[in-house]
Design a protein that fits this description.
InterPro entries: Cellulose_synth, CES_Znf_RING, Nucleotide-diphossugar_trans, Znf_RING, Znf_RING/FYVE/PHD. By secondary structure, the chain is an alpha+beta fold. The protein is globular, with a radius of gyration of 35 Å.
Length: 1040
Amino acid sequence: MASNTMAGGLVAGSYARNQLHVLHGDEDGRPPTRESTTNKICRICGDEIGFKDNGLLFVACYECGYPVCKACYEYERSEGNQSCPQCHTRYKRHKGCPRVVGDEEDNFDDDFEDEFQLKTEQRDCNQHQIHTNGAAIPSVAGSVEGKDFEGEKETYNNEEWKERVEKWKTRQEKRGLVTKADDGGNDQDDDDYLIAEARQPLWRKVPIPSSLINPYRIVIVIRLIILCFFFHFRILTPAYDAYPLWIISVICEIWFGLSWILDQFPKWFPINRETYLDRLSLRFEREGEPNRLLPVDVFVSTVDPLKEPPIITANTVLSILAVDYPVEKVTCYVSDDGASMLLFDTLAETAEFARRWVPFCHTYSIEPRTPEFYFSEKIDYLKDKVQPTFVKDRRAMKREYEEFKVRINALVAKAQKKPEEGWVMQDGTPWPGNNTRDHPGMIQVYLGSEGALDVEGKELPRLVYVSREKRPGYQHHKKAGAMNALVRVSAVLTNAPFMLNLDCDHYINNSKAMKEAMCFLMDPQIGKKLCYVQFPQRFDGIDRHDRYANRNVVFFDINMKGLDGIQGPVYVGTGCVFNRQALYGYDPPVSEKRPKMTCDCWPKWCCCCCGSSRKKSKAKKKGFKAMLGLGGLYSKKKMMGKHYTRRSSETAFDLEEIEEGLEGYDELEKSSLMSQKNFEKRFGMSPVFITSTLMEDGGLPEGTNPGSLIKEAIHVISCGYEEKTEWGKEIGWIYGSVTEDILTGFKMHCRGWRSVYCSPKRPCFKGSAPINLSDRLHQVLRWALGSVEIFLSRHCPLWYGYGGKLKLLERLAYINTIVYPFTSIALIAYCTLPAVCLLTGKFIVPTLNNLASIWFMALFLSIIVTGVLELRWSGVSIEDWWRNEQFWVIGGVSAHLFAVFQGLLKVLAGVDTNFTVTAKAADDAEFGELYLFKWTTLLIPPTTLIILNMVGVVAGVSDAINNGYGSWGPLFGKLFFAFWVIVHLYPFLKGLMGRQNRTPTIVVLWSILLASIFSLVWVRIDPFLPKQTGPILKQCGVEC
């Protein structure tokens, strides 16, 4: 990777109009070099496998041939599970390797010779005598478990035996297997320990203790059985006096039961994972050697800096530039989808401030490396800081940050009013993005160019501003389109094999976040099969009680850990490190299969007639590829009904040269390779970008011209580049929903990729979340709308991808993510039933007998026990769990319901409706936004439900008082039902009242109006008068 591959000034251009302008700065760059190796490497430690004494390649497992070096093989036999990682066959002892428990007793004399490195001069087949230094040793019998061998002790005296052991140690020292016990022995022992430690796994799976998970699974099965008996009772015991209410309640309960199954069973195999960053450093960051950690491109997306404060985006960028990772391997790309000069100038100020902030972070190892949150932390910042200059430097840095904030706020104030002639840059050039809907593509490199060093003269990570081209009449696909543009421009300019995706308000809270991800992505066993590493989302600025479940603790600490035990967590839109090859739509690499067992019981002619033709055809193809030098470049892959290619990490070839090399061969052989036209149809008309896709380990080809890279980068972010390609369909972020994250992760898992959930003790990323009621509901509305769009699309998990490699429980989880908004219909009906029952005097359940009461009690107990056991193994607090249950009802009867109807109108009728949110000022300083009220139509349904149930409770109690003692028994079930609704909606009611218990008049009027109309429709009698039972009396007309 080069420190400079791009132009130093803002480059704006349009490929369709053949325009390319450098508005300021000059072009300068140097191409990177890329080294490749052809030696076979160990899949455990990454080192070369090496050869045996006879010159043959060392093979640890004779069953499957899984590549493992001798050091890892010996460690696995002595300290590990003594079996092959791939086929799980027990390792057999190789000649010259120490014995372990369980080794076979065969050829023991050969083993003894190899263990002590003795030269055999003569061997008698009967006596098995070994002659060494003129002395004969009879055959030896030994104890394998104790590793102590017994022979005829009178053969050697003590001095002779010590001399023999010393000679053996000398030979072992020459081979590097043991260390000398001299003065430098301790240092050598430490080095050997570090080398052995580096060969250890980079992570481990921490299963949930069986004492916690087994009772949880047992209760789930019991609850499922109870649920079946409960439905059996409910269906076969109708309430004839309230038949419509009974039908509605049964349908709702069945839907709730199915929703519970979809949510519960993907949590059957929860796991935790633990990483070892010290081992990662020992393996890839050895002193005196080049750093072997792979590069990472970081994507930050933003749209409108007036709605997304520039100071927040600047803090996110600063945390990326100060990350604990090799600076030459980090590049930060900021996508400005609003073509705002405010963000452009903000990044310029941020780049200048980073020259002082980054060395300060590295010198004193501070956390977090976001100045806004670091300086606002109420902790002892002198803890663990022993440098005498720290206090002085911290004060100076804080003063500089305050000045930096003043400059950013001045830019924001200036941007509030746009000049009539448009914005003008500092050099007098008109800003290319004055028309946000019609402007060319723009690229600006702030850091990473020549001379862009910090105040200590050290290199800084690259910072690149990107604004894709926009023209009227083109579909730009919002955030998903912007992310795909970043994928292409980063592939052209830096082409790191991994990409970190962050929202502009999510900063890096743990400077070792990238290394945490590398523990999985650079793992020799599973790294190539991972599409992404997902981190949990944590948030700042949320009130202590988390009234509206903004933290989503239940989802991130329970559901995601459950999915991690199946095929991996879903992609949640931010805090995710991607494997670039997975985003290109390729299948994961196929594991090396064990060779089939063969026997000599069948005649040779049988084998020839069965498999000779296939072998010949394979040999012919291999020979053809070898002639072209493309043996490792292409391998045919079948994926989702189409044939795509998988490229190797060796060399990138010019596509035209490949086409020319095919001349002279028949059509059948040509069809085995993907032609240039198919490449362009898939990836677009960019040879540079297509070449980058052939480089699995990233990097740029040798001899790259920086000027041509800039021109090509402008080309790949042009608005018409994706036309007639598979971008957004099979490649990159998938289009078709406002929640593009769910679709993108779902497509990867369908191809067979795995994902990993990484949740370190110190959160790697933190962000901001809307904490007031209206904004929270609006956020949930957007998520639910995206799920409805996926449900109504061809990518619905109910029917998509059954020919792929998606696991069943993983599919259930994806089905749950797209059907949960439809639960709102059943939920709002079920929350209305208590009020109806109280107002009409009827109930959805007939008189209960003893058996029915048992099933009801068993169901409630199983629900409670399931929740308690779930909290035990997950560590989630009961308050977080209860807040999640409450907001499930609040969001279900408001945002989810609106999302269902809005999604149906948008997909089926083409009507795109938006729910506007208008703000009202807040009163409080701390958590003032919590009490900020914003009127929205989402508030009407839950308010109406609260009023209805309160009216129903008053009416039911009054009716029981008038009718006497006998009517209190049936009333308790109805009251419990109504209070269940009111308790779940209590946080909504509290948020509705605000800080000063003031509720907007319009909400009260609408809710009372709807509640009154509903009550008048259902109430046919006066509930405040006693009911008359008996004959109907009429006036007879006779005056008595």
